[in-house]
Amino acid sequence: MKIGYKLFAEAYEPKEIVRQAREAERAGFDFVEVSDHYHPWLYSHGHSGFVWSMLAAAASRTETIHLATGVTCPFMRYHPAIVAQAAATTALLSDGRFTLGVGSGERLNEHVTGAPWPSVTVRHTMLREALEIIRLLWSGGYQSYEGKYLSLDDARVFDLPGERPQIIVAASGGRSAEIAASHGDGLFATEPASDVIGAYAQAGGTGPRYCEVPLAYAKDEAAAAASAHRLMRFGLTGWKVQAELPNPINFEAATASITEEDMHAAFGCGPDPVRHLEVVRRFTDAGFDHLTLMNAGPDVDGFFDFYATELSGRLVGS
């Protein structure tokens, strides 16, 4: 079992994200994961720094903690050749402490280039092609590729790490779980869905299984639920909504009926470790073995202390 921390880049400015990566290492986390977004989800967030700059800075200011994108869409806002180069460089800067998390994208981030937003079926095909291009470039030398949607013309990544980063593929259903098995080194999910893990295993997937566990630490439950509502209510809309809406104003509208009581039911809220462990068990019981703790509470450093003193020993031993 590996325990990670989600760096909430939409809610904090870039220097603070780097500081939190360093503090997560001190608290004893195995890895940190940071989203690769262009826009924040909600007006209350107010930030969305460039992930590759933050990862490079975090790599230079940490020593042991592993770093991951959670997740990058490697085929619209970026060409996969750029992702291949960025991931290789980050792996070198971190001395091999980098994992590339990828997915089929959200309109929130990818529409900014003006390209049409494809159907999920097309995006899955584009994701397969993007991963083929990335692995081709990581094999060394000059490479070309001609797919249905993506192409590569005589390109080479010159600086490659001796050991290529693992690629963890986000999945929310059977089709994406199959891509994780056939084109990835592991699975990533945001819900405690054992059927997704089952589909991944049935398709031949044997790698690590990452998830994001929704928690909100505060000294009382009401403050924790209020903070979770302010920061994370978009998470209760579900993947079919999250993938399709283009801007924060749309998520403000889509989350207007979500209450603090809804957040309290979905999140581990407050100071009681037992409640937090109950939420964690939803994911371990489903079969996940890389738990990314996502704190939506108001006190980041308080959560790090809470993890170190109240959660760490129980989670590692679970």
Automatic annotation (TrEMBL):
Query: Which parts pass through the membrane?
Result: none
Q: Which UniProt keywords apply?
A: Oxidoreductase
Q: Does the keyword Oxidoreductase apply?
A: yes
The segment(s) forming the Luciferase-like domain are 12-290
Q: Which residues form a coiled coil?
A: none
Domain of life, per UniProt, equals Bacteria
Asked if the record carries the keyword Oxidoreductase, the reply is: yes
Query: What PANTHER family does the entry give?
Result: 5,10-METHYLENETETRAHYDROMETHANOPTERIN REDUCTASE (PTHR43244:SF1), PTHR43244
The record's listing under NCBIfam families reads:
F420_G6P_family
What name is this protein filed under? LLM class F420-dependent oxidoreductase
* Species annotation: Actinomadura vinacea
